[in-house]
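Exercise 7. Given the components listed, write out the predicted structure of the assembled complex. Treat all entries as one system.
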Amino acid sequence: MADTGRVRIRLPSMIRPGEVIRVRTLIIHPMETVQRDKQGNIIRRSYEFIHAVMVTYNGKEVMRGETTQAVSQNPIFTFPLKVDRPGKLTVTFLDTTGKSYKETAEIKF
Amino acid sequence: MESPDQLDLDYSGQSGMVQELNKKNQGPSRRAFLRGLAAILTLGAAAKEFLFGSEALGQAVPSGFPLPDETVEATLKRLFGNRPLNQGEGKVKLDLPLIAEDGANVAVTVEANLPMTPATYVSNIYIISDKNRRPMIAKFSFTPEAGKAYIATSIRLAATTDVRAVVEMNDEMLYAVSRHVRVTVSGCGDVPQN
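Answer.
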């Protein structure tokens, strides 16, 4: 897919200081599943899927996810974030090919 | 795998050092030899622990190679050992559709109504599906910065199954809830035989 690795972050339209908001992120990724031959044996090769999700806010870690192949293609992750001051939100995805996909969003009131 | 090659290099490096020491002393120095041997042995043990230990802990596998199939009991044992899974109804909310038409994309929401203060907080949320070949689907770790323990994502389910959410507190207390989901079309290409 040409779009592999495109990350989108969606924030609520109104953010008040001190609130716990829900941030929605989407990544375009194939998240390959294990393939099998006709006899049902696993085809042994390296599959391409996201194995880690990392969220930081102003450099502080908020959430870290370990994902497997049982997570859907083009997965969505919604996570909470406590905003008490404006800052920069960074979401990073790591996949098994060694690539990392990163997106940032500014949070202001 | 790359690691074994690196290990070999390390071994040769060590023995090379030993040989050099031996040369310097004009004849085999027993002490240097023994020291080298001990170093090699401890290095080997550490490497072994690193290689197999990490697999046992179920950490992410950056290589992308498929892992062996597992039963849900084995997964729970591997993740939580013998710690009891407390009933989490009322504390943990697990939202899933009753019937998932497409097993490849099932929306799941886990919300814990538990405190998120620096002293007491939800450290991990595990999503586990009983009938998947590898039941452990995802693990999300939180810090008190999150303000609330909540995660929503989309997962693949292999067959009609129970899905569990296990919430782990920072003091290692566990709360589990489960929901039954009917899956019309498998999300993994094939249906496990059981």
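Discussion: Residues 30-56 of chain B form the longest helix (27 residues). The longest strand of chain B covers residues 174-185.
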